[in-house]
Write a structure and sequence with these properties.
There is one protein chain. The chain is mostly helical and about 160 residues long. The chain has one domain (about 10-155). The chain is built from nine helices and no strands. The protein has helices spanning about 10-20, 35-50, 55-60, 70-90, 90-100, 110-115, 120-135, 135-140, 145-155. The longest helix is centred in the middle third of the chain and has 18 residues, at about 70-90. The termini are far apart. The structure holds zinc ion (ZN).
């Protein structure tokens, strides 16, 4: 059964604009720390696009998502685009791309979370809460419900008590 799309274009634009007001970072000139051939390709992709115009096909290749290789500054710059594309498509590829930048890495380290301010963490938690409430059917269909709930908890941690500059 097809899930009804709950987000109007206005809501998508509203969330994307809110994201841009929280992640106010200038476009970096370097997005990846590594200089190998593969990372240089990702660097080119991320440099050629921008947060307003980047498309699902630029970002939506799960394991090869260039944002998987980006620095926290690069992730902050592009996060509003992930918000926009998540609400626009709400399917597995973009949900996986979103989760891949929010989950912990090796040893439970999460440089994106660590470098984010309390306000940025609050926004991410609010946004995840929003998609849990309004896109439950799509999350189930993509098989990511548990992981989105986990990310919601993760990004809610200390977000109101700890201030990171
Ligand atoms: Zn590399």
């Amino acid at each position: 059964m097809a899930e009804q799309v709950v987000n109007t274009p206005e809501e998508t634009i509203g969330w994307a604009k809110r994201a841009q007001s929280v992640f106010t970072v200038p476009k970096p000139t370097r997005f990846v720390a590594c200089g190998c051939a593969e990372c240089s390709d990702h660097q080119q992709t991320l440099l050629a696009a921008d947060v307003e115009t980047v498309t699902l096909s630029d970002l939506g290749h799960s394991a090869l998502n260039p944002l998987n290789f980006a620095t926290p500054a690069g992730l902050k710059y592009y996060f509003p685009a992930l918000v926009r594309l998540t609400l626009q498509y709400a399917e597995e590829e973009i949900l996986q791309a979103l989760l891949s930048v929010l989950r912990d890495g090796r040893g439970g380290k999460n440089p994106f979370w660590e470098s984010s301010t309390a306000g940025q963490r609050n926004f991410v938690a609010d946004f995840l809460g929003h998609i849990i409430e309004t896109h439950a059917g799509e999350l189930d269909l993509a098989g990511v419900t548990d992981e989105v709930l986990w990310a919601y908890e993760r990004w809610s941690q200390d977000s109101r008590s700890e201030s990171v500059q």
